[in-house]
Amino acid sequence: MKSSICCFSGYRPEKMPPDLPEGSAAFDRMLQRLRWSIRRASGAGYRHFLSGMSRGFDLWAAEAVLELQEQGYAIDLWAAVAFPGMEQYWEPEWQRRYHAVLSQAASVFSISKMYSPTCYTLRDRFLVERSSRCICFFDGVPGGTAYTVRYARRCGLLIDNLAERQLRFDDLNIIE
Q1: pTM
Q2: In terms of C-beta density within 10 A (0-12 exposed, 13-18 middle, 19 or more buried), how is residue 176 classed?
Q3: What distance in Å separates the CA atoms of residue 90 and residue 153, rounded to the nearest whole number?
Q4: What is the rounded CA–CA span in Å between residue 128 and residue 148?
């Protein structure tokens, strides 16, 4: 089962590079690379895509999975929620997106019963330990994404890092 599960890891919006604000042309290219990576993983046999459901990359990835599912890809979204109510202090638009995505998830896992200082780390470990591939956006900024990507590497997951320059996704001239 693990061989068919791909997780996501990436930054919250405020930690994304300043040249990638949501709605910009650069951001749209990043989303295009994200969808391409999900399609590539699907073509390699991945069927379940596991999101940590945080604002930013996690929700953008979850929305991309649901969009591709709607287009006929045989994939589904699994949601790993750090604790119930984790979205209650977010901006209303992020709360709306979170609930829209959560309502369409094929499976929802609640990692902790309530907030604790370790609940996000436990969620990140849950993502990695159930997956064999990780699609991420990591450009070296310390924090939860750095921890998750390092842990994924130690666990032997395939890593598709959308922030790595050598991937040169822009040169692929991807058309959707």
Answers
A1: 0.92
A2: exposed
A3: 30
A4: 7
- The residue to which tokens 């990576």 are assigned: 37
pLDDT tens by residue, 147-170: 999 999 999 999 999 998 644 444
- AA identity, residue 90: W
Helices 25-43 & 57-70 angle (0-180, nearest 10): 60
β-sheet bridge partners, residue 109: 80
- For a pLDDT cut of 90, what percent of the chain falls above it? 91
Tokens of 64: 């991309």
DSSP string of 65-125? HHHHHHTT-S-EEEEEESSTTTTTTS-HHHHHHHHHHHTT-SEEEE--SS--TTHHHHHHH
> C-alpha angle 93/59/100, rounded to 5°?
55
| Chain segment 47-99, per-residue pLDDT in tens | 999 999 999 999 999 999 999 999 999 999 999 999 999 999 999 999 999 99
